[in-house]
Amino acid sequence: MNSINVNQFRENLKNCVQDVINTHVPLKVTDHNGDDFIVISAEDWEREQETLYVLQNNSLMQQIVGSYATHTKAQGYKVNEDQLNEIIDL
Asked: 46-61 pLDDT, tens per residue?
């Protein structure tokens, strides 16, 4: 994560915001009192919120663990050729 002070942020607001959006790297801004805030793109914020939702949902986490276990044992669901072709055509 990159860091700048609030004066640099204010002077370069447009470039700072565009950089955060393009690189998907949050920006930590420190004010005169040493307090910080983070600038993050809306896309990244939404992705983080979805991740937090999944991590906090026990049912979803159990499904993921179960799927991973069957995958590592090669016991998961296997699609047939027709199903695979249908998926590829999407």
From this structure: 999 999 999 999 999 9
